[in-house]
Amino acid sequence: MEEYIRKRRLSQSAIELLASEKRIIEIAMEFGCLNQGMRSLNRILKK
């Protein structure tokens, strides 16, 4: 279940990044991705 939540947050973050003018740090804070590290978010978004 924890893995699902992590993946869901990251995918929603990617959608938000593409659809808005927000900075990565703002989106990470909004979706609670800071706890998992910005490296995870950046790695996913680069794909």
UniProtKB/TrEMBL annotation:
Domain HTH araC/xylS-type residue range list: 1-47
Keywords, in A-Z order: DNA-binding
InterPro entries per UniProt: HTH_AraC
Entry GO MF terms: DNA-binding transcription factor activity; sequence-specific DNA binding
Protein name: AraC-like DNA-binding protein
